[in-house]
Amino acid sequence: MARRAGLKVNVTADSPEEATEALEAVLSDLGEAVRDQGDPETYWKIPGTWMVLADLADQPDDDATEVVKRLTGRLALDGWRFDGDADVAGAVWASDEPSPAYPGVVWLFLESSHPQDD
């Protein structure tokens, strides 16, 4: 059974274009096709930041934890916090300072779950 995968990225940026550029850098390192990508939205909890979302192509793995581990392993970030099980899993990376590997990125959530009926 394939699994869905997606990510949410919180970016410190001056414009939605800069926030999109930060997401594109993360997506480039993930090396996965993108099913859907949302427009950046201002993140109300942290002024000066944007939330950007992307749904990735279905992942060929029966275990959600394995999908999350494989995808996070492609990113130049340390200190992931993993949660979940073979059914639904996620990982969070967060920092008080933007990532040197992905300028502006201060928080990233990567998740995997059941495919949904389209």
What does this entry look like structurally?
- Strands 1, 2, 3, 4, 5, 6 and 7 form a seven-stranded antiparallel beta sheet that branches.
- The chain has helices at 16-30, 64-72; strands at 3-12, 34-37, 41-42, 49-59, 81-84, 89-94, 105-113.
- The two termini are 15 Å apart.
- The chain is an alpha+beta fold.
- It has a single domain, classed as Alpha-Beta Plaits (2-Layer Sandwich), CATH 3.30.70.
Task: List descriptors.
single chain, 118 residues, alpha+beta, Alpha-Beta Plaits, 7-stranded antiparallel sheet, 2 helices, 7 strands, globular
Entry summary:
Helix content is 20%, strand content 39%.
Largest sheet descriptor: 7 strands, antiparallel
Number of domains: 1
Q: What fraction of the residues are assigned to beta strands by DSSP?
A: 35-45%
Overall mean pLDDT: 92
CATH topology: Alpha-Beta Plaits
Shape: globular
- Looking at the overall shape, the CATH architecture is 2-Layer Sandwich
Distance between the termini: 15 Å
Q: SSE order, as H and E? A: EHEEEHEEE
Low-confidence stretches: none
Compute the CA-based radius of gyration: 14 Å
Helix content: 10-25%
Number of strands: 7
Q: From the helix content, strand content and strand pairing, which structural class follows? A: alpha+beta
Oligomer kind = single chain
Total helical elements: 2
The level-1 CATH class: Alpha Beta
